[in-house]
Specification:
CATH architecture: 3-Layer(aba) Sandwich
Number of helices: 8
Radius of gyration: 18 Å
Strand order of the largest sheet: 1-2-4-3
Low-confidence stretches: none
CATH superfamily: NADH Oxidase
Length: about 220
């Protein structure tokens, strides 16, 4: 698969088969992704992967916090914080497309809440990864984690493994720290659910539009 094919062909999958991805494949992908560039070669990233019993235990622990009334407490401001203008409009459009694909009306708060909770079920994926960096680092360092994450997703796409990057997986870091091997002093920036796509699942029909070239780039000569 060429890079162009991987970028054009991949999309966020939210319905997975239960079959796990071979550990050798996961390790191979991360081994290659670690070659991604970073500012001054600082390589600030770390990916903590949970699978099997640990993944099930983590899901239960996160739901225990949620059901106890605990509000989200991410280490970094979430991606939706501070959105204004066209960016807020795109966020709304994304939500409408998502709910619409699932046949959920805008005023059906119960169904929307149930769909939201699927984030912490890892959408049924057999694996979840938690991407972190030292909590003392800032926004510029997060660029490096984005490059690393994109590398992982494209390498997985090449191998027929589907992914869903999730900011929501940074919302309840307490249980993650107890169960996953997150380095001391690191803060979780986002998560990644991954596995094999459950082809035909309604939730996988979701597709998001992208802005045209003229909107996202300018050229001066």
């Amino acid at each position: 698969m060429h890079v162009t094919e991987a970028i054009k062909g991949r999309y966020s999958v939210r319905g997975f088969k239960p079959e796990p991805v071979p550990e050798d494949t996961i390790r191979e992908v991360i081994e290659i992704a670690r070659l991604a560039p970073s500012n001054s070669n600082t390589q600030p990233w770390h990916l903590a992967v949970v699978s099997g019993k640990a993944r099930r235990k983590l899901q239960d622990a996160i739901f225990e916090e949620i059901n106890s009334g605990t509000k989200p407490y991410p280490a970094f401001p979430p991606g939706g914080a501070g959105l204004k203008g066209v960016y807020k409009e795109r966020q709304y459009a994304c939500a409408y497309s998502y709910y619409g694909t699932m046949g959920i009306e805008r005023d059906d708060k119960k169904a929307r809440a149930e769909l939201l909770m699927k984030n912490w079920e890892f959408f049924g994926a057999p694996h979840a990864g938690f991407l972190s960096m030292p909590e003392t680092m800032n926004r510029a360092n997060a660029i490096d984690l984005g490059i690393f994450l994109q590398s992982i997703m494209l390498l997985f796409a090449e191998r027929g493994v589907s992914c869903c990057p999730q900011g929501a997986l940074a919302s309840y870091p307490g249980p993650v720290r107890k169960i996953a091997s997150v380095p001391e002093g690191n803060a979780i920036l986002c998560g990644l659910s991954f596995g094999y796509e459950d082809v035909g699942a309604q939730i996988n029909d979701v597709r998001m539009v992208r802005e045209p070239l003229e909107t996202v780039a300018s050229f001066t000569s």
